[in-house]
Amino acid sequence: MMVSLFDLKDRVAVVTGGTRGIGKAIAIGLAESGANIALLQRSDNAETKREIEKLGVTCEIFQCDLHDLDRVRNVLPEVLEKLGAVDILVNNAGIQRRHPAVEFPESDWDEVLKVNLKAVWILCQEAGKIMTDQKKGKIINIASLVSYQGGIFVPAYTAAKGAVGQLTKALANEWSSLGVNVNAIVPGYIATEMNTALIDDPVRSRQILERIPAGRWGDPEDFKGAAIYLASAASDYVHGHLLAVDGGWLGR
Ligand code: NAP
């Protein structure tokens, strides 16, 4: 019984940003639970695909640069045609730009808002069309601690991730009665390429570590459990929730 609650056999999960970091671990985690995987990525890097295929499930790469909103708009019908379903969507891909607010370039603002918010919105909307129609689906957005807090030197990222948290609740309100779960995962400080600037700064890195109750930075592997839970029947009555996977940061 416990196993079947988390079983994703024959489901099709669409994951953005699966080439590395949190998205790669989530894609592999969903595949370990039995899901077939559609990787939406801008490069043809097939490392994650190869790892997933070793698990005995299907994995296809769909070329999709999240800057290209026309492509973002039409990619899910392609997944549907090739893999037969769109059951789970994980909006994971994201970018970071750090500058003091007075110097923040408008081009960086536009880029961050496009990739981290508008592309997420469009994929939610397109998945929502398919999922509300089939009366079943799971959408998992990746929010951030700055969905709650302000951060420093990252105003565009904070604005986008705050909005991703609110969008998650707005869509859950519309779609929960139609069989579609929309939730978010809130990562704490995770040791990925996105945080190289923080990890390489001995002062910031120590300050951050001292504030994490778990006593360590997070690892992409820490996200498999939360993603499987929100993608599976185990979370069928969970809607509009932001699930922190942060080593206790927000509780402190
Ligand atoms: P990461 O290691 O930098 O990986 C980012 C992923 O996004 C890569 O797969 C990258 O693909 C993809 N991506 C970036 N721009 C793209 C575009 N225009 N089109 C398609 N794909 C694109 O980041 P991460 O730390 O794993 O972060 C994953 C998610 O968690 C993001 O939404 C991030 O904001 C969020 N998050 C991370 C942390 C943290 O501490 N790391 C904390 C809170 C929230 P390429 O290989 O093509 O670059």
List keywords for this structure.
single chain, 252 residues, alpha/beta, Rossmann fold, 7 strands, binds NADP nicotinamide-adenine-dinucleotide phosphate
Short précis:
The chain is of the alpha/beta class and 252 residues long. It is 44% helix and 15% strand.
Task: Describe this entry's structure for a reader.
The chain is an alpha/beta fold. It has one domain (2-192, 221-244): NAD(P)-binding Rossmann-like Domain (Rossmann fold). It is 44% helix and 15% strand. The protein has 9 helices and 7 strands; from the N terminus they run H-E-H-E-H-E-H-E-H-E-H-E-H-H-H-E. The chain has helices at 2-5, 21-32, 47-53, 69-83, 106-134, 155-175, 196-199, 202-211, 224-231, and strands spanning 12-16, 36-41, 59-63, 88-91, 137-142, 180-187, 242-245. The protein has a 7-stranded parallel β-sheet, with helices on both faces. The longest helix is centred in the middle third of the chain and has 29 residues, at 106-134. The site of NADP nicotinamide-adenine-dinucleotide phosphate (NAP) has 27 residues, from helix 2. Residues 11-181 form the Ketoreductase domain. Belongs to the short-chain dehydrogenases/reductases (SDR) family. One of its GO terms (biological process) is bile acid metabolic process. One of its GO terms (molecular function) is oxidoreductase activity, acting on the CH-OH group of donors, NAD or NADP as acceptor.
